[in-house]
């Protein structure tokens, strides 16, 4: 095992621990409402700092709003090296996922950002994602253009994209520099391969969805699990830790943001950054799913 070194991924921001934290699970059932044990959630968020984790990913639609408020209640005033990323562009009208939709109206995106800044007590968002490229109520270029305008006003430091295609990523980069992108990518499902390649070519950070999932491989799930568990035994680790270690070996641009509500799981996730996989182990895992 090696001691993981923080990596400088964002200009103008502190180096980040190789493993970030996705805060989405710190909400109610189906990501609706507040997390039922507020004291536990606050303690978990504060423990991030003790573990060296200094990148937190959230969004206004988580709750909605309760996730950002929880982060503020737990961690404000923030340490100088803490980086918070939030997102705007999804709306949610109730606890059922069928109420989830997309809004790209530039005025709404401005409202979403200013609301997030107010809840988090930030004057400027270190990283702000357009949460979806699916919205059709405004041209995609206008949505990105509004984020650029807010960046020029000093409300955003870096701009990111979530739920977009590689073509939209390229279109957005013609308007403004894109610092980060998120997509589905893990040991069993490489749907986000094109976006990972684009991020490597442009220097953008790539945060994979479902980074520790072993069940995204479709008909290949059993093979994925068997391979990952065998490698995990060799390292006295869990298969999910090996999944994170493989992602970190895959690219220097990757910043996994696994979520959890459990302190022991959090520590396991952080410890994965110290696992060194052999070239053969990396090759075995890489062969589990095709790059698309």
TrEMBL record:
Residues 18-288 form the NADP-dependent oxidoreductase domain. It comes from Herbiconiux aconitum. Keywords: Oxidoreductase. InterPro entries: Aldo-Keto_reductase, NAD(P)_OxRdtase_dom_sf, NADP_OxRdtase_dom. This is Aldo/keto reductase. It comes from the Bacteria.
């Amino acid at each position: 095992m090696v001691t993981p070194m923080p990596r400088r991924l964002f200009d103008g921001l502190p180096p980040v621990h190789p493993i970030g934290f996705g805060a989405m699970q710190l909400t109610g059932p189906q990501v609706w409402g507040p997390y039922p044990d507020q004291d536990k959630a606050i303690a978990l968020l504060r423990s991030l700092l003790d573990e060296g984790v200094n990148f937190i990913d959230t969004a206004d639609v988580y709750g909605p709003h309760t996730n950002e408020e929880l982060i503020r209640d737990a961690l404000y005033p923030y340490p100088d090296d803490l980086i918070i990323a939030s997102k705007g562009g999804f709306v949610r009208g109730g606890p059922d996922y069928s109420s989830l939709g997309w809004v790209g109206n530039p005025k709404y995106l401005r409202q979403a950002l200013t609301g997030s800044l107010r809840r988090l007590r930030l004057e400027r968002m270190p990283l702000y994602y357009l949460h979806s490229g699916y919205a059709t109520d405004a041209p995609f270029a206008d949505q990105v253009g509004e984020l650029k305008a807010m960046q020029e006003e000093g409300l955003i430091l870096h701009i990111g994209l979530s739920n977009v295609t590689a073509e939209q990523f390229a279109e957005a980069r013609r308007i403004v520099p894109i610092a980060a992108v998120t997509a589905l990518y893990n040991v069993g499902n490489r749907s986000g391969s094109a976006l990972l390649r684009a991020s490597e070519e442009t220097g953008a950070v790539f945060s994979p969805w479902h980074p520790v999932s072993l069940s995204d491989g479709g008909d290949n799930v059993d093979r994925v699990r068997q391979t990952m568990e065998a490698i995990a035994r060799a390292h006295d680790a869990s298969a999910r830790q090996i999944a994170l270690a493989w992602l970190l070996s895959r690219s220097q641009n990757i910043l996994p943001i696994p979520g959890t509500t459990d302190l022991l799981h959090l520590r396991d996730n952080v410890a994965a950054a110290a696992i060194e996989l052999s070239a053969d182990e990396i090759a075995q895992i890489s062969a589990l799913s095709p790059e698309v």
